[in-house]
Each structure stands twice: as C-alpha cells, then as structure tokens.
Amino acid sequence: MAAVIESIGRRIGDHPLTVGGFSMGGLVTRYALAKLETDGIEHQAQLYYSWDSPHTGA
To answer: pLDDT averaged over the chain?
Structure first.
C-alpha cells in the first residue's frame, strides 16, 4: 500500500498507474489494492497484472 501511495506522489502528470507482481508479489499487490479500496483510498491504478501468482493456492 505504501508503494502505491508513494508512486502516486512521485509521478509526473496524472497518468493512471500500472501495478502488479510476480509470484507472491502478485498476491501482495492484489491484496494491497483491495485494502486501499476497502479503506476508501484512491489507488489510481488502471491496470493490475500478476505473473505466476498462486491465486487459487499453491
């Protein structure tokens, strides 16, 4: 969550973010975006990707 919020602060312009991760990082990113939405914090992510992430378990 901190990385997404920091990215919003550091970017130049107002282009939407692309966030994601590989393996466990894909799960962490998914949960972080869901938590931001649940808490009512705008994550400004337009695209989420994951590669080789165990979304249905290992």
So the answer is: 95
DSSP secondary structure string for all residues of 1-58: -HHHHHHHHH-SS-PPEEEEEETHHHHHHHHHHHHHHHTT----EEEEEEES--TT--
C-alpha pair distances (Å), 25 with each of 14, 21, 40, 49 = 25, 4, 22, 10
For residue 29, count CB atoms less than 10 angstroms from its CB and return exposed for 0-12, middle for 13-18, buried for 19 or more: buried
- Nearest 5 degrees, angle CA 57-CA 40-CA 28? 25
In tens, the pLDDT along 40-53 reads 999 999 999 999 99
